[in-house]
Predict the 3D structure of the following.
Amino acid sequence: MSAATTPPGDGRQGLKPPPDAAAPVRHPDAPAPGELLGAHYDQCFGCGDAQPHGLHLAARAGEGVSVTAEFTVQPAHQGAPGLAHGGVLVSALDETLGALGWLLRVIAVTGRLESDFVRPVPVGATLHLTARCTAVAGRKIYSSAEGRIGGPEGPVAVRADALFVEVKLDHFTANGRPEEIRAAMEDPDQVKVARAFEVNP
């Protein structure tokens, strides 16, 4: 069976929740379904508005522990002529999966992500993404996502299963480049300071 026909979550090593994993629970303070989540950090390649060649991915809270997002492939995102680069498509999946942290109200980073490329995505196409959390086991958060072209009900182009790991703020402050950490922490807009470290795929 090829990667393009392997069902998501079908026994992938390290991505299958353990038997004692709990069902995910949407946090009471999570954004309401349909609410635009916005950028967590304006320099983020995935969602930041200040990145000229970034994805500018716009995610919305969904029902339960799910999110939807859209990303339009630009000429700067090409791999082969006229087609999206596979790494850019994985970045879009990763960003959408990372946005699930807003609904769980945890800071989490990608521990493992496996993707399937089902069909090519042309420049100019809008990728309609959905992600859902499937289980939680301690600090481990299991989730899956897919991206469709031609509309939210269009054919699947890409999909992924992921394991995110909950971390504390010092994961970023101890490991990030000091000048960016300082700039983010010293921003006079305290809402932006708080958001910069809340969600990081």
In short: The longest helix spans residues 86-98. DSSP finds five helices and six strands in the chain. Residues 1-6 have pLDDT under 50 and may be disordered.
